């Protein structure tokens, strides 16, 4: 029985079609380039991780590490999930493969698909892709700034303007507990007037009260105690150094005392890069910060680290809106167009030409006229037309599509001629 409706893609995922894929390639190449230029090495960790790693690392109470986790059907003893982000996996790999013994910090980056079962909306998908950059094994705030420079450098290099860097410090295990106590003491008497989500946050994750975007909570938030007024000496000094080094790098930032981020592992510096043209809650192109407590949370030795991730979907969308235009290359530079049943001969010409230029062959049974119409839509630089008599003489009519010039060329000369034309 065929299905009652044609089968479409799942909700919240998207196909990247060839024209858009060309823009992604530009973004990917730039990502590798900027990360390598700062001495970062590529790593690839699995898309599947143990549930425990994500629940402990990202935090079970967070959206990404809790209710939005894609859980796989349990097989055997392992509880597996699709990774909602890369940081926990990269840190796990750092320890598991002894990078603790190598140069510190380990500078690592990765790109790939992440999965969060969230409500799909513009700019928010259930499968999305990140550039993720991590410096693991050193507590210097200089690495915080290095990560910010990589993030801004990547986006700026792709032609994005109108970027705004938002910066905050959320303290550490020394000063944060006292701040949270203060925050809870402030919000407790207001509980009944808070949005239900915030009533819950007050009990489970009070820091996230500061992240609330509900209008009904806004007046309370405006008067709430600020973490940056409560930082311990070490956190305050680190925060000052981050700002000073940003200044030295010529990177402007906007201090945002409400920026707390949606994942549990952060300490001290947190940041987001937002784009002024994207409204709503999905306006962050990237974000990150320091996470000195994550390693211990997943069972390894205390190790300071910092990093960020940025979403390809959002960056590519903004490239379309304001980045430099990317003109997708033609599917093939040369199209071989046999006039008549010359499959074997056309294939041979294709093989010869392919050594120097991308070459496709029209194997259809259409008329020559129909094949030429199809060639116009495909947009190769040249077509090589050949009828039975020409095939016998091992020649093609090589036609430049733009200029319309045509000349007879022997099969064996074809690669050399194409090569010379490409070099010219
Ligand atoms: P995040 O803020 O959850 O951080 O995600 C970083 C970026 O990934 C976002 O700014 C956004 O561009 C993109 N993103 C997140 N969720 C979605 C979605 N559902 N659809 C489309 N794009 C999305 C992290 O993931 C941390 N691991 C960053 C980090 C690395 N912190 C330290 N190291």
Brief overview:
With 424 residues, this protein is α+β, with helices and mostly antiparallel strands. It has 14 helices and 16 strands. The site of histidyl-adenosine monophosphate has 27 residues, from β6, β10, β11 and α10.
What order do the helices and strands come in, and which of them pair?
Blueprint: H1 18-37, E1 41-42, E2 48-50, H2 51-59, E3 70-71, E4 80-82, H3 87-96, E5 106-115, E6 127-136, H4 141-157, E7 163-169, H5 176-187, H6 196-204, H7 218-223, H8 233-248, E8 254-255, E9 269-275, E10 284-290, H9 294-297, E11 305-311, H10 312-322, E12 334-339, H11 343-354, E13 359-361, H12 368-378, E14 382-387, H13 388-392, E15 395-400, E16 406-410, H14 414-423
Helix pairs in contact: 1-4, 1-10, 4-8
The chain binds histidyl-adenosine monophosphate.
Histidyl-adenosine monophosphate binds next to strand 6, strand 10, strand 11 and helix 10.
